[in-house]
Amino acid sequence: MSLVSHLLERAAHLPPPRTRAITIRRNLAIRMPDGVTLLADRYRARHDGTEPVILMRSPYGRGGIHALAARAFAERGFQVVVQSCRGTFGSGGDFNAYRDEAGDGLATLDWLGAQAWSKRGVAMFGPSYLGIVQWAVAADPHATLRALAPAITSSRTRTFTYPNGSFSLASTLAWLDILSGQRHKGLRRLRERLNSGRRLASGFATSPLTDADQVVTGDRVQFYQDWLTRKDDDAFWAPVEFDRYLDAVSVPVTMVTGWYDIFLPVQLADYRALRAAGRDARLTIGPWKHVDPGCAAESIRDALDWFGVQLHGRPTSRASRVRIFVGGSRRWRDLDEWPPPSRAVGWHLHPNGGLEVRRAEASEPDHYRYDPADPTPTVGGTVLATSGGPRDNRALERRRDVLVFTSPALVRDVEVVGNVAAHLHVRSSLEHTDFFVRLCDVDPSGASRNICDGLVRLTPGAWRRDADGVAMVTVDLWPTAHVFRRDHRIRVQVSSGAHPRFVRNLGGGEPFGSATTMRVADQEIYHDRDHPSAIVLPVREEPG
């Protein structure tokens, strides 16, 4: 066993292996109904070859962390088949995001069901895109499919692409860069990785965005072009809106995600839909972002337990259906369901940057100007990069286009667990505009670290203004679990962007891809008795 495999075993706190003797058969050819051949590697214990099978379908190759996970499963009572998706790493055809995963996945399950060594059931495992391919087959599961373990992912591909009417620019271009870099080998791949940051920065600043794929990858990517122009095309999105079938999913599902993951709110929506339909599902939420080794380790550990239950009939090590990590207190909590019971407490925006539970009285609105030529930047948070997660926001909060509202020092701990929303009374000089709200924890040293945030894109007809032009808008923030400690302060930021995480709003209502004309937005935030702007926190009554 390699040193890296041993380190993974220790980091993930995996149960002891049953064997170290693993046989790998590479480049198995699996023919699809249209004649395209997909390649796969099969891992099995050398002394056996009849254990239940774990299928991993990936566009990122069959080595690296996939190979390490496959070996970890194979050493603990499973066979593993790692398959390259269509158009990637030797598999035939062309890669077209999401479009072929249902057909190819079901055909692969057919092939597995016909193999003499695969008669004890199949489970599917994997994070991110490897989770989306699981949802692609879950609505009409093959007879051999017994369990799913999708991590940091969601069935809601359309909703994730257009969060609250905006566009996930940073995650989309970063993903294109990853896919493009895989085409190269050796020194060329190293050079591409070293230049990745520069290419992405150029892509984020490109106008119009229809040119950004070529800036980042050197090529035109058709599915990216489609995403820019077909947001409201129901016929285009219907074949890959896998969430439409969640109430029909009969296969037991375990999910792992992180508070700073790019898929968090849509993955939690998947969980709630499964539970509302009475399905067997469980959930783990940790202190992770999308590219976090801790999340990868937990995903493998959790899947081993789940597959042991579903395919081997072993008892589970879990004490609850939902397990969450609570920030601030830095401990794990077991819950019966998500979200847990809580009390909605409004913290109201006040003049002079105050934040209090009581409503403000008479006050003048606060003003700021949002200029898309100098967009409010992303700092930490939910991005497809190592720079995500909690970060000190003080430099961001000094910008003129960011309003900051801060509570007095807390006299006792405040535990917040659940869904967070802000209700803002706003006026804008433009009909097309965005509002971004971020919740931060300010420690006694003054460091302001982001806990959760969210953005809403407003278009004519989407917000109702009163006679003086003021409207109440709701911004849904990422869910969270966090304890604001005694002597810390609660802070709320209000701005009109988080570029490039969300595509910047140029102010004219042009389509994402072709927009070039930039308009400055003059924004007002009201906070008086008639306009009680507030952030609403789900407060647990009995912390600890």
Explain what this protein looks like in three dimensions:
This protein is an alpha+beta fold. The protein folds into three domains: 3-156 and 243-325, Alpha/Beta hydrolase fold, catalytic domain (Rossmann fold), CATH 3.40.50; 168-230; 343-539, Jelly Rolls (Sandwich), CATH 2.60.120. Helices cover 25% and strands 28% of the residues. The protein is built from 14 helices and 23 strands. The chain has helices at 3-11, 64-74, 101-113, 129-138, 157-161, 169-181, 186-194, 196-205, 212-217, 222-229, 234-237, 264-276, 293-312, 394-397, and strands spanning 22-31, 37-45, 53-58, 79-84, 122-127, 145-151, 253-260, 281-289, 322-326, 331-335, 343-350, 354-356, 366-370, 403-406, 414-418, 421-428, 433-442, 448-458, 471-476, 480-484, 489-495, 521-526, 534-539. It has a ten-stranded mixed beta sheet, with helices on both faces. Strands 11, 12, 13, 16, 19, 22 and 23 form a seven-stranded antiparallel beta sheet that branches. Strand 9 and strand 10 form a beta hairpin. The chain is globular, with a radius of gyration of 24 Å. The two termini are 42 Å apart. The mean pLDDT is 94.
Instruction: Write down the CATH class of the largest domain.
Output: Alpha Beta
Give me the number of helical elements. 14
**Rg on CA atoms, Å:** 24 Å
Query: Strand order within the widest sheet?
Result: 1-2-4-3-5-6-7-8-9-10
CATH superfamily of the largest domain: Alpha/Beta hydrolase fold, catalytic domain
Distance between termini?
A: 42 Å
Tell me the helix content: 10-25%
Provide the structure class.
Answer: alpha+beta
Strand portion: 25-35%
